[in-house]
Specification:
The protein has 16 helices and 13 strands. It is of the alpha/beta class. It has a 7-stranded parallel beta sheet, sandwiched between helices. A 6-stranded parallel beta sheet has the order 10-9-8-11-12-13, sandwiched between helices.
Length: 401
C-alpha cells in the first residue's frame, strides 16, 4: 500500500488541540502534512482555519459508550483507509484508543499513542481496572508511545502499561513545550488590555488563581475548602478561576456553588488569551490528584508566576520544590492553606520563585526542542517501516499535477 505523507492527529474534544499548537508548520517543513480528526466544535473549526489544517469530525465522547464507540471506530477506520496516512498520532484516552485500533486495522505503518496522563490514577475498583486495560490496549496497538513526563514514564513501567522499548519521553517532557518568547512573555503584554481587564474584574489587592477544568480530579473541592479557611485572614485577596466547570453532576456541587457566589471570587470560562490572566496573579494553585505534565504550570512559570501544587505524578516534573514553587499534600485543604500562607507572607520568595520558573521554562521547554524530539521518533519509526517521506511526498505532488 502506498502511504501519503500525512500525519493524522486524533483528539477526543477540540479543547485538547492546544497540545499541538504551532506544530503543523514545523512538520510540513519536514515533509509531513497535518490532518485532524476530532469531535466537532467551534474551537476545532477556528484552530484548523488558523493553521490551514484539513480536518474531519468523528463524534468521540469522553464517556465509555460501547455501541457509540464501535461506530466511531468504524468511522475512524474508513478515514484511514481513504487517506492512507503514513502516521496516525492518537492523543487523549478515548481518541487515542480508537485511533490506534483503527490505524492497526487499516494497516497504517506508524501508530503513535501519546500519553498525557492516566485517568485511572484517581479511580478505584472496576473503573480503575477498565481504564488501565484501555491504556494497555492503546499501547499494544501502537508502534510507538510518547509520554509527557519522567514520573508518568515510571508509573507506566510500574503498572506494566507498555514495554520500555516502546516508551519515549520527548526532550525534557511536555507534549508541545511553551512559547515563552512570544505568547507567554510578560514583556509582550498589551498594558492597556491588562489594565482594562483589572478594571473589569475590579481588582485592587493581591490575586491568586486556578486555571483548568473545574473538576474533582483537579482538586477544585480542596481549593474551595482552603479558600473558605483563609479568606477572612487576607481581606485584600481575590481568587480568580479560569476554565469550564464539570461539577454539575458532582456530589460536591454545593461546595463549588458556594465558592462561585463569593464576591471575591471571579470565575471566567475557557479563554484563548490566558496569559493576561496569569499576569494578574501573585501565584497559581493546582491541588490536583494526578497529571501528565501540567502545561498550565509551565505557562504560568513562563509568565513569572510560581505555583503551589499537590505532590503527584506530573506535577513533580513541572515544579522544582523551593525554587519554582511549593508542594502541598494531595487531597488536603489544610496543607494547601499552609503553603498559601507561606507565599502570602513572603513576597520576596514569590518573586524569586517566579523568576526561576521563567528561566527554567526557557531552558527546558522550548517548543522547537520538543518538536524535533518527536520528529526523531517519527523518522526512526518510518525508517523501520521502510518509508521514505521525501519520495512519498514527491510522488503525491506529481499525481496532483
Amino acid at each position: 500500500m502506498n502511504h501519503s505523507s500525512t500525519i493524522i492527529h486524533a483528539f477526543t474534544v477540540p479543547i485538547s488541540l492546544t497540545f499541538i499548537e504551532g506544530q503543523s508548520s514545523f512538520f510540513c517543513e519536514n515533509c509531513l502534512d497535518t490532518q485532524l480528526i476530532c469531535s466537532k466544535g467551534d474551537f476545532l473549526t477556528e484552530f484548523a482555519h488558523r493553521y490551514r489544517i484539513r480536518f474531519e469530525t468523528v463524534p468521540y465522547t469522553r464517556k465509555i459508550t460501547p455501541w457509540h464507540d464501535l461506530m466511531c471506530l468504524w468511522y475512524t477506520y474508513q478515514i484511514f483507509r481513504r487517506v492512507k496516512p503514513a502516521i496516525v498520532h492518537g492523543n487523549t484516552p478515548k481518541a487515542g484508543l480508537l485511533s490506534m485500533l483503527a490505524a492497526r486495522m487499516a494497516g497504517v505503518p506508524v501508530r503513535v499513542y501519546e500519553i498525557h496522563g492516566f485517568p485511572f490514577e484517581s479511580r478505584k475498583g472496576f473503573y480503575r481496572w477498565l481504564m488501565m486495560g484501555m491504556e494497555r490496549l492503546s499501547c499494544r496497538a501502537a508502534t510507538n508511545v510518547l509520554i509527557v513526563s519522567d514520573s508518568l514514564h515510571t508509573l507506566a513501567l510500574n503498572q506494566r502499561i507498555a514495554s520500555a522499548k516502546k516508551l519515549t519521553v520527548p526532550h525534557r517532557g511536555s507534549c508541545n513545550g511553551v512559547d515563552a518568547r512570544l505568547k507567554f512573555n510578560p514583556d509582550n503584554l498589551d498594558e492597556c488590555k491588562l489594565q482594562k481587564l483589572k478594571e473589569t474584574l475590579g481588582l485592587k489587592g493581591r490575586c491568586i488563581g486556578f486555571v483548568g477544568r473545574l473538576t474533582r480530579d483537579k482538586g477544585i473541592v480542596e481549593l474551595a475548602l482552603a479558600w473558605k479557611m483563609i479568606r477572612q485572614d487576607f481581606p485584600d485577596l481575590t481568587l480568580i478561576l479560569v476554565g469550564s466547570s464539570e461539577m454539575e453532576l458532582s456530589p460536591e456541587k454545593e461546595i463549588i456553588d458556594e465558592l462561585l457566589l463569593d464576591t471575591r471570587v471571579h470565575w471566567v470560562d475557557f479563554v484563548t488569551d490566558v496569559e493576561y490572566y496569569f499576569a494578574l496573579l501573585d501565584f497559581i494553585l493546582l491541588p490536583t490528584y494526578r497529571e501528565g505534565l501540567p502545561n498550565v504550570l509551565l505557562e504560568a512559570g513562563a509568565m513569572e508566576v510560581p505555583a503551589i501544587v499537590s505532590r503527584v505524578t506530573g506535577t513533580v516534573d513541572a515544579v522544582v520544590e523551593n525554587e519554582t514553587g511549593l508542594f502541598c499534600e494531595p487531597r488536603s485543604p489544610e496543607s494547601l492553606v499552609e503553603k498559601i500562607r507561606i507565599y502570602l507572607t513572603d513576597h520576596d520568595m514569590v518573586r524569586r520563585h517566579g523568576h526561576n520558573a521563567r528561566k527554567r521554562v526557557l531552558l527546558d521547554f522550548d517548543p522547537l526542542d520538543v518538536w524535533e524530539a518527536k520528529h526523531r521518533v517519527y523518522k526512526k519509526a518510518l525508517q523501520t517501516a521502510g518509508i521514505d517521506l521525501h519520495a512519498s511526498k514527491k510522488m503525491m505532488e506529481q499525481l496532483g499535477k
